[in-house]
């Protein structure tokens, strides 16, 4: 007969492990294998990951546009110009008005994910496929996070498609 304390301990450990794996804010950029991508999406993802390799870990700095510090909208603007040669406005407010709004289940690599992180603050990142996006985090700098992380899922606002080739 198994003791109740052992069962409860096992349940707590399993719950903690599930919680920690679901809340990972910086998954491996190599874990994109679930959803098939078009040839264009594959090339875009490669371009964004190459860009990410140069910017990974650069600290967040409001108004920043350089390797010394960058904010989310500058990262998106520079990434779009570098990776796919598309110009974007500088601010999150203006970026949230370009292109067309897309349903969550239609997101493709390169789409812009927007979040309302407070009553007056907006955040933006670039979708990389399989529920991952690149952005400039205020706490960790330039990272790749999961859109299904409970925090990001709770503050999700909209998705916009800027690239007409998608």
From TrEMBL:
Origin superkingdom: Bacteria
Domain NlpC/P60: residue ranges: 42-163
Keywords assigned: Hydrolase, Lipoprotein, Membrane, Palmitate, Protease, Signal, Thiol protease
Cellular localisation: Membrane
KW Membrane (keyword) present: yes
GO molecular function, a single term: hydrolase activity
Keyword Cytoplasm (UniProt): no
Pfam family, one: NLPC_P60
Topology within the bilayer: Lipid-anchor
Similarity comment: Belongs to the peptidase C40 family.
Protein name: Hydrolase
Organism: Vibrio panuliri
């Amino acid at each position: 007969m198994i003791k109740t304390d052992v069962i409860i301990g096992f349940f707590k450990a399993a719950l903690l492990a599930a919680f920690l794996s679901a809340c990972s804010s910086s998954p491996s950029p190599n874990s994109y294998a679930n959803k098939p991508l078009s040839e264009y999406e594959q090339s875009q993802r490669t371009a964004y990951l190459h860009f990410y390799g140069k910017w990974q870990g650069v600290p967040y700095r409001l108004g920043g546009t350089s390797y010394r510090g960058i904010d989310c909208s500058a990262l998106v603007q520079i990434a779009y110009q570098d990776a796919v040669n598309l110009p974007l406005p500088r601010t999150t407010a203006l970026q949230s008005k370009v292109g067309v709004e897309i349903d969550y289940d239609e997101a493709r690599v390169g789409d812009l994910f927007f979040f309302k992180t407070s009553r007056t603050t907006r955040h933006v990142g670039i979708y990389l496929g399989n529920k991952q996006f690149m952005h400039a985090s205020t706490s960790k700098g330039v990272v790749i996070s999961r859109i299904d992380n409970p925090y990001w899922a709770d503050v999700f606002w909209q998705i916009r498609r800027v690239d007409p080739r998608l």
